[in-house]
């Protein structure tokens, strides 16, 4: 048997054809199959990190820089953060935007926001810059800052509602004066390596790209001005980058079956099982037990699913032309209130919603030809705040839907949603084989029973 110099496969042996075929299979086909399997596995693993949402294909957070004026050693820019996601907001403690300067730029001053760290500014005499770090991190002001530090659309603690809820409150802005930078369109270097925490991980930002200058209208709307230079940064969200486990779960029940289908066990992972607290524990009466931590570590109520949020979908009533669903959202986190929460459900009968009783409702149409997805959110100043775990830690509503006689059925779990999202993150549903099932006698015709009874009664009278 001879071996080639550049490979470990033997040279073909014509005297042993069967053995030769096996050697060719082992030396050429097996490595090729391994390569293809590894390539397919890589694609599958990488696809989980791709920030694409089929229910909101164009959703993103856009960070826009508009240079409004030049200074002696740099420029003054207005930075605007637009949340273009239909149902995913940025909750408290709010957004943090970061980047890496291309040269040795500094921030002289800011209005409407602040750098989280000043950095080493020891080489400056006289006026000390606001921030000297090469990679500054910027956070929004809290409400109530002095008037001279405010800017339009600022000072909301970094909280942004989703675009679908309210476009006017889904934007934030601040002004930054940059020094040791370029003083013209040709000498300005765009920052790089942008990051966005909203408030935790999950967002991936692309590179800054120059775009046509933003146009502005004066207060009387009779004159139009434009920025001296504009660039955009687009950030997209991936739940797989944000969490190792789901952050919510769904349970089901119905009027036609006494069985309640609970959330799956350890649906959100049981890593917090050792630190959870029972609902009747005396520790809940201690001062500061509900205080949020800087790292947002949750304090969960001990449950079998260990999720901070549970969504319960109950098929409540059946009418001739309509059917009714009750939706309940329960918070099991003692340290977090959910402001401006959203709930998204996917169900074929959401194309014919008749009435929603105590939630706001908006259909989502990512594909115009399909109307099976809707967003529920709280009414302003009524139930748009989901309180921390406890007696007040829940919100609920009922939905009345009109039947489509061609598709409507209670069989095979049709009445339950296909997907559920809370605050933009997909919740874990129970396995389909555990859904409350429809028994064969659940909708037996009551007239048929009374007819049989009447027939037996009349027959007895005739014989009597």
TrEMBL record:
One of its GO terms (biological process) is plant-type cell wall cellulose biosynthetic process. It is a lipid-anchor; GPI-anchor. Its main location: membrane. It is found in: Cell membrane. Keywords: Glycoprotein, GPI-anchor, Lipoprotein, Membrane, Signal. GO terms for cellular component: plasma membrane; side of membrane. InterPro entries: COB_C, COBRA_pln. Residues 247-436 form the COBRA C-terminal domain. It comes from the Eukaryota. Belongs to the COBRA family. This is COBRA-like protein. It comes from Carya illinoinensis (Pecan).
């Amino acid at each position: 048997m001879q071996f080639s110099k550049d490979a470990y496969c033997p040279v073909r042996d014509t005297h042993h054809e069967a053995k030769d075929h096996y050697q060719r299979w082992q030396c050429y086909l097996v490595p090729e199959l391994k390569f293809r399997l590894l390539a397919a596995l890589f694609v599958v693993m990488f696809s989980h990190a791709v920030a694409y949402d089929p229910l909101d294909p164009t959703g993103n957070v856009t960070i826009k820089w508009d240079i409004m004026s030049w200074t002696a050693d740099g420029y003054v820019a207005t930075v605007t953060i637009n949340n273009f996601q239909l149902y995913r907001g940025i909750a408290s403690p709010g957004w943090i935007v970061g980047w890496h300067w291309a040269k040795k730029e500094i921030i002289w001053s800011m209005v409407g926001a602040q750098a989280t760290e000043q950095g080493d500014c020891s080489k400056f005499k006289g006026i000390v810059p606001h921030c000297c770090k090469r990679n500054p991190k910027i956070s929004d002001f809290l409400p109530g800052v002095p008037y001279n530090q405010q800017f339009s659309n600022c000072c909301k603690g970094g909280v942004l509602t989703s675009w679908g809820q309210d476009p006017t409150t889904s934007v934030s802005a601040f002004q930054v004066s940059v020094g040791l930078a370029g003083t013209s369109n040709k000498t300005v270097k765009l920052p790089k390596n942008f990051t966005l925490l909203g408030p935790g991980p999950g967002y991936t930002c692309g590179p800054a790209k120059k775009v046509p200058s933003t146009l502005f209208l004066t207060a009387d709307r009779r004159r139009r001005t434009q920025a001296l230079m504009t660039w955009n940064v687009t950030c997209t969200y991936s739940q797989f980058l944000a969490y190792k486990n789901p952050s919510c779960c769904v349970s089901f029940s119905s009027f036609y079956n006494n069985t309640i289908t609970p959330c799956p066990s350890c649906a959100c992972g049981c890593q917090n099982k050792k630190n959870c607290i029972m609902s009747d524990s005396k520790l809940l009466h201690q001062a500061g037990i509900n205080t949020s931590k800087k790292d947002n570590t949750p304090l969960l109520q001990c449950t079998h699913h260990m999720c901070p949020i549970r969504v319960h979908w109950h098929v409540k009533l059946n009418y001739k032309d309509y059917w009714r669903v009750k939706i309940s959202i329960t918070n099991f986190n003692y340290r977090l209130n959910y402001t401006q929460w959203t709930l998204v459900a996917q169900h074929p009968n959401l194309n014919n919603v008749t009435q929603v009783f105590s939630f706001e409702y908006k259909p989502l149409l990512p594909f115009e030809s399909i109307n099976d997805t809707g967003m529920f959110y709280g009414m302003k100043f009524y139930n748009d705040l989901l309180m921390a775990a406890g007696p007040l830690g829940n919100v609920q509503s009922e939905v009345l839907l009109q039947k489509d006689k061609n598709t409507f059925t209670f069989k095979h779990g049709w009445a339950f949603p296909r997907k559920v999202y809370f605050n933009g993150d997909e919740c874990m549903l129970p396995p389909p084989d555990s859904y409350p099932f429809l028994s064969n006698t659940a909708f037996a015709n009551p007239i048929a029973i009374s007819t049989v009874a009447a027939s037996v009664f009349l027959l007895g009278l005739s014989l009597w």
